[in-house]
Amino acid sequence: MIQGEKIRFDIYNILYSIYKYNKTLNNKDIQKKINTNKKKDISFIINVTLNSMRFHLHTSKIINRYIKKKLKDKERILLISAITQIVFLNFKEYAVINCSVEIAKKLKIYHGLINAILKNVSRDKNKLKNLNIKYNDLPLWFKDKTNSFTKSEKEIFLKNFNQEPNLHIVFKDAEKLINFEENLIPTSHVSGFVTNKINIIDLKSFRKGDWWVQDFSSFFPLHNLKFKEKNKKFLDACAAPGGKAFQILSQKKQLTINDKSKNRIVILNTNLKRLKFTAKVLNMDFINFKEDEKYDFIVIDAPCTAVGTIRKNPEIFFRSKEPNFEELQILQENMLHKAANLLNLNGLIIYMVCSFLKFETENQINNFLNKKKGFQLLNFDLHPKNIRYSKLINNNFMQTLPDTILNNTIDGYFAAYLKKIK
């Protein structure tokens, strides 16, 4: 097996596992399917895998143009990857076709069919590049959960959902931003979009621990708050990989950091060490927290569909199974109620999800307020320096689709401020 074929076989195996078994690209089992240590090859695999998932709705429409019969999963996934490489990544057609045909033989699928479809696609590729996805092409579960979307919201989502995300970073302080060695588009005095494509681990400022990667949407809700001195004890309930916790630690607050996942705690501790932050770190199920210790400020970045991060995590649409909506809804509700029991009087909960679906955003908050009469929704008042981001605020929530600010991409996100008043 030649090297190009080996690499593309790895890509096929990764895509097949994600599709069939609901894995993520960062899953340990998926990482084991990468059979190379060469940085260049790994970069190639990740690039093709991500873009195959980003463009799989496009490539599925293309496949349907050339064949009407129902394909087997193995055939469809091999074609999705190959068509992505030919049409959307502009790789050399003969290399993609030859490798795909050889892989088809090893998979014992009809390699003649694969060869014929890819040759037709190759012939028409310039025309196929301009194929558009319509809202009706999106997954059924997503259309059902967004049936209240306006025409404008549908257009925004379609324009942005499969675009490559921009890199947004957050600094410990303003001085470190000023001294950053790359060009930035500032989003605040301590954050900005990096204008050039970079390998972050090559930067001296990264190794020194001057900053961390954090999407603007995730960064903004805490950045917009002015922490009061009476807010003495902070808890980040689902902290890993740590962006929001680092925001609080950079303000020199007393913070307890928790995450249920042992693997994510390892990543969190690595990040804490690089940034030279110290904090109490727990590895517990937040729902099982004892209620004898109280806090003044609790961050809940709750598990969710994560559909707002579709650009970073295109497997959300690519998987064969839809999210477990009922399980997520119950978990989010339980986390909110646990936080309410752990909060001191006049304390604040900030509830966040990287989603824009109503059942885990507005509806979740409204249900909480109906059941917990001792809480009120605080106005999401913007700091004067943040007025330029007013489009992110609606009904006293921060809520946005995958969109752009300052001509750079941001995740879809939701945040609400909840105060305990009695």
Q: What level of helicity do the residues show?
A: 40-55%
Biggest sheet statistics:
9 strands, mixed
Poorly predicted segments: none
Total beta strand runs: 15
Describe what this molecule looks like in 3D.
The chain is an alpha/beta fold and 422 residues long. The chain is 44% helix and 16% strand. The protein is built from 18 helices and 15 strands. Strands 5, 6, 7, 8, 9, 10, 11, 12 and 15 form a 9-stranded mixed β-sheet that branches. The protein is globular and about 70 Å long. It starts with a helix and ends with a strand. The model has no long low-confidence stretch (mean pLDDT 93).
What's the structural blueprint in terms of helices and strands?
Layout: H1 3-21, H2 28-31, H3 39-54, H4 56-66, H5 73-88, H6 93-107, H7 111-123, H8 125-128, H9 140-145, H10 151-160, E1 168-171, H11 174-178, E2 184-188, E3 191-194, H12 204-208, E4 211-213, H13 216-224, E5 233-236, H14 243-250, E6 254-258, H15 262-275, E7 280-282, E8 295-301, H16 315-318, H17 325-342, E9 343-353, H18 362-371, E10 375-377, E11 393-394, E12 397-400, E13 403-405, E14 408-410, E15 413-420
Helix pairs in contact: 1-3, 1-5, 1-6, 3-5, 4-5, 5-6, 5-7, 6-7, 13-14
